[in-house]
Amino acid sequence: MLFKSFLKIESIKLGMATLIIAYYIEFLQLTDFLNYLGLKNNTWANLLFGNYFSIQDLLAYSLGTIAIVWLSKLKPYKNVEK
Question: What crossing angle do the helices spanning 11-28 and 55-74 adopt, rounded to 10°?
Fold first, then answer.
């Protein structure tokens, strides 16, 4: 939750936004969008967006988001005022 350091946003909202972006990219892998964009052979595009859809990735994203949000509720961040 690096953005939590810069933004005043609830952990659940940030976690859900991150999860939506991750799901969006994962479901894009079901299409041939890299080929459509002309990036099929681009190493960086393949590294960033991935090559194939995986239901295990969706599960990992979901469990990771749940864990981070839960941990942030256990020990909330304290604002340090100078």
Answer: 170
Q: pLDDT tens-digit profile of 65-82? A: 999 888 888 765 565 555
Q: How far apart are alpha carbons 65 and 43 in whole angstroms?
A: 28
Q: What share of the chain is helix, strand, coil (3-state, %, to 5)?
A: 65, 0, 35
| Joined tokens for residue 58 | 């969706």
Rounded Cα–Cα distance for residues 26 and 24 (Å): 5
pTM above 0.85, yes or no: no
In this structure, the number of other CB atoms found within 10 A of the CB of residue 34 comes to 19
Q: Which two tokens stand for residue 81?
A: 């005022």
